[in-house]
């Protein structure tokens, strides 16, 4: 199978294109649906794991437990590659958010899947969504929402995401908040897939 155990986390050692197929259709390849499609209505959660996440997982046990429960963990960056080389399981490809986002938008646009952008300072998610939409005019932007909200706003924000009928939710609240927020709220979200994307909206808005 595609699982590579690193720092006691099951990393999905897959190519970027397979990772994107998973985000869009929950499958690593369309002929064998080995990777589970969940029976429940919960979205599948995908996280990028880099050296920083590993450090945080040692520091915060609730974050570590959250990562262990995720549906898909991608090997992000050189640190993960070096760790995998150590156990003779070469990483197929560096699957990081900044390389994935434009490709994901392109494929989502082609397949008619919509994306909701949650996170970053006021205005940033909107700007990132608009820029990506300019690049991929067929991209369906389901909506956007900044990431500076309180716990008591969760219900309203989740309702906004669900009303948008987004297929894919991108959450840019920074680690470990974004992974913990997604894990705690997955049961209420109606999208198919949610990814934690860190500071990516800042990157794509400017
Ligand atoms: N952020 C947010 N709400 C918060 C804290 C942070 O939306 O309560 C956003 C912040 O504006 C930035 C992103 O989360 O866009 C964090 O980016 P950073 O690069 O620090 O995260 P990392 O990639 O290290 O997880």
Automatic annotation (TrEMBL):
Keywords: Glycosyltransferase, Transferase
Protein name in UniProt: WecB/TagA/CpsF family glycosyltransferase
Lineage of origin: Bacteria, Pseudomonadati, Pseudomonadota, Gammaproteobacteria, Alteromonadales
């Amino acid at each position: 199978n595609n699982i590579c155990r690193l720092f006691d986390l099951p990393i999905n050692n897959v190519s970027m294109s397979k990772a994107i197929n998973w985000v869009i259709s929950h499958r690593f390849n369309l002929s064998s649906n080995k990777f589970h499609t969940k029976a429940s209505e919960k979205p599948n959660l995908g996280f990028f794991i880099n050296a920083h996440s590993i450090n945080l997982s040692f520091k915060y046990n609730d974050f570590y437990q959250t990562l262990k429960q995720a549906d898909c963990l991608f090997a992000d960056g050189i640190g993960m590659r070096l760790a995998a080389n150590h156990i003779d399981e070469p990483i197929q490809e560096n699957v990081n958010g900044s390389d994935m986002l434009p490709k994901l938008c392109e494929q989502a646009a082609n397949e008619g899947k919509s994306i909701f952008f949650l996170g970053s300072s006021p205005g940033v998610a909107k700007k990132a969504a608009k820029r990506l939409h300019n690049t991929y005019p067929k991209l369906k932007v389901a909506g956007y929402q900044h990431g500076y909200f309180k716990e008591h706003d969760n219900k309203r924000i989740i309702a906004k995401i669900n009303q948008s009928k987004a297929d894919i939710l991108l959450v840019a609240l920074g680690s470990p908040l974004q992974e913990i927020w997604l894990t705690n709220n997955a049961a209420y979200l109606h999208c198919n897939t949610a990814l934690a994307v860190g500071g990516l909206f800042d990157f794509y808005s400017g």
